[in-house]
Structure to design on (297 residues):
DNA sequence: AAGCACCGCAACCGCCTCGCC
DNA sequence: GGGCGAGGCGGTTGCGGTGCT
């Protein structure tokens, strides 16, 4: 015999938010501000817990939320900051304007950890960190450079979806890689340098200088790939048969940089790869083989 | 075309911390 | 100082979409 449900259990809705609920929440917060989530939920007329309202607002409805795939710059930031702080998603998110801890957490679990699994190494192990330092970071940096140069040369061309310039990296904001760093620029790759690993030696020096991508992070947060803020986004929503709604993402869900080591390695080229192997036999013997052979027998 | 497997992400859960009384 | 509630955070789950066979 099922336990009788209490009034409290019946009081709160769960599951996907409806368009109506979103509108209620948005309008209440616009008029009264956020905080005091439990009372907010009641006063807004929402049959949701305060926690649920807070989560919905912070992760989805807040106007400055960036959507779409993470740019190479953002991915680099995540890799770097995670190496510093571990799974402190909210702390990492503070350094990625418009990105939520939930989004970063999802990215880490679905992309980065997947790669670690394919390499048969723990995502929090030193070996995995070496793989990140040795392959993905240089590749991401290279992608940033490519996007920078190709964007500058092709951005004036037609920007329809078939344009090569709107491939994931090209769709990302162009980050200027000037050689005159701001004096207060900090290099988030510092700990890669001090790791005793010389893998980054092949990365163009202008990228690894004090004028690293980090000093441009605010610029990369430009909304060129982001979805419009929630208030505008709602116009893209569609109603599903059960009354919940979803957002049609077809217009903005460009594929971001894959951490797929195979394609990553393909972008590096052999000579570069050889240079990066110095001083790290484990990488040479294990990761490299795995990376090269991942799609093989 | 249909079925299946995989993937990405929104949302929930449970624990922890903090502030107030 | 202890209890309590609210908020915050990291971990996990479930569902819808997509690609593959």
């Amino acid at each position: 015999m099922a336990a009788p449900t209490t009034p409290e259990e019946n009081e709160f809705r769960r599951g996907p938010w409806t368009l109506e609920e979103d509108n209620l929440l948005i309008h209440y917060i616009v008029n009264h501000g956020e905080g005091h989530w439990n009372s907010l939920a009641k006063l807004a007329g929402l049959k949701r817990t305060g926690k649920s309202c807070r989560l919905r607002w912070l992760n989805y409805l807040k106007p400055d939320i960036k959507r779409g795939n993470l740019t190479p710059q953002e991915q680099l930031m995540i890799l770097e900051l995670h190496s510093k702080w571990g799974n402190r998603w909210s702390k990492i998110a503070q350094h990625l304007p418009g990105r939520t801890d939930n989004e970063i957490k999802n990215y880490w679990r679905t992309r980065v950890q997947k790669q670690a699994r394919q390499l048969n190494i723990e995502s929090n192990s030193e070996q995995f960190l070496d793989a990140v330092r040795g392959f993905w970071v240089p590749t991401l940096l290279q992608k940033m450079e490519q996007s920078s140069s190709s964007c500058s040369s092709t951005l004036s061309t037609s920007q329809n979806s078939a344009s090569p310039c709107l491939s994931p990296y090209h769709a990302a904001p162009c980050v200027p890689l000037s050689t005159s760093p701001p004096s207060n620029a900090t290099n988030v790759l510092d700990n890669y340098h001090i790791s005793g690993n010389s893998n980054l030696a092949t990365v163009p020096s202008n990228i690894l200088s004090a004028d690293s991508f980090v000093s441009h992070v605010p610029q990369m947060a430009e909304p060129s790939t982001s979805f419009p803020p929630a208030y505008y986004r709602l116009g893209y929503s569609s109603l599903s048969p059960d009354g919940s709604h979803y957002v049609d993402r077809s217009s903005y869900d460009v594929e971001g940089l894959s951490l797929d080591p195979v394609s990553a390695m393909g972008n590096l080229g052999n000579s570069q790869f050889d240079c990066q192997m110095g001083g790290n036999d484990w990488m040479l013997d294990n990761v490299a083989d795995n990376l090269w052979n991942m799609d093989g027998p």
